[in-house]
Write a structure and sequence with these properties.
Oligomer: single chain
Shape: globular
Protein name: Acyl-CoA dehydrogenase family protein
Family: Belongs to the acyl-CoA dehydrogenase family.
Keywords: FAD, Flavoprotein, Oxidoreductase
Cofactor: FAD
Distance between the termini: 103 Å
Mean pLDDT: 91
Helix content: 40-55%
Number of domains: 3
Structural class: alpha+beta
Organism: Sinorhizobium chiapasense
Number of strands: 9
CATH class of the largest domain: Mainly Alpha
CATH superfamily of the largest domain: Butyryl-CoA Dehydrogenase, subunit A, domain 3
Length: 420
Amino acid sequence: MSKSGRAGEKCGRPKMPVAATNTVQAPKPLPVPNSDFYDLASTLSADELALLKKVRSYMETNVAPIIDKYWADDAFPFELLPSFKELGIGGLGYEGYGCAGGSQAQFGFVAMELARVDPSFCTFYGVHSGLAMGSIYLDGSEEQKRQWLPQMARFEKIGCFGLTEPLVGSGASGGLTTTAKREGDTWILNGQKRWIGNAPWCDLSIIWARDVADNQVKGFIVENKTTPGFSVEKIEHKIALKVVQNGEITLQDVRVPEANRLQAGNSFRDTARVLRMTRYMVGWASTGAQMGAYEHTLAYTQKRLQFGKPIASFQLVQDLLAKMLANVTACQCLMVRLAQLDDAGKLQDQHAALAKAFCTAKGRETVAWGRELLGGNGIVADFNVARFFADIEALYSYEGTYQMQNLIVGKAITGLSAFV
């Protein structure tokens, strides 16, 4: 036997034909969909990031598996409220009064995370913690803050925000038809409010009305369930934000004590302070909706086979996925900078307006591409993208229309008002 043969016998592995060693390699694992392409979450502190992960886990574990059914049924998952309270995110961004505190960046990332799973759930949270609590935090007296904010931060009392009316939307600054008339230490409110999220079931409403004495807009805390003359009718047959329970409020000789008038809310300028803060939250929410749509779309294209391979391998599909991600990333970067301005006390109306307009417009574009990539499945709620596709339409319109936001920006950059 040759030396090479004896060596082979000694090693215990006979020489094999070259062809026999060519085994089929297992497919390379595909990347898990991740919409934080620039790793912006790393800008948060360790504690903030831990809370964000906690919120993501909650939303994916508790909300994601059931939300499609609730969306289809126009219903809200009330059974989740006890566990949702335990997240401790009531009053994020507000200091004191039992509120969660923290930076505006943390508040924004949490809102974005909620919307990433369901924009409706984010809207419920934003109406309560942003609009209702924000009205009391910014325009309430010290006594009002101590009375209401701790209960609201614990979600023991849920609030809503009544500004929009059946015939008054963009013209709320000077055209409210809901009136407030003072008689001694009591105010009498008459009028209607429409599209008020949480109104059919919440505990208190922040109602904005025009004082007939000085024609100025003032804010009032109305306890829904115990105040005579206050009634709510749920708005049915919506095609967007179907989980949110919107209502039309009717106020007929509703009597509110002076103690429940927001003591620092004496003109629409004071109302606008609340809107500035919550308006840019819609930027976070619409960015979160884009993240959810992008991630569901990418996962779908990685699994959907046509012509014997995943459609994610096709050039035109990758082109749209890259465009979706670019929109998401641009909106994320804009919102992170906006939060920095807010934390520094530099946030102005035009900053919030630009963010709301840009992010919601890009949101429409992003989710439309997602719907397109899913083909027929893009209009079925079971595949998730349809829900984002419909919900973004509401985000595009509420908290001030796209055109109104652009006019706010236009006035700031030109020095000239185009409002009429």
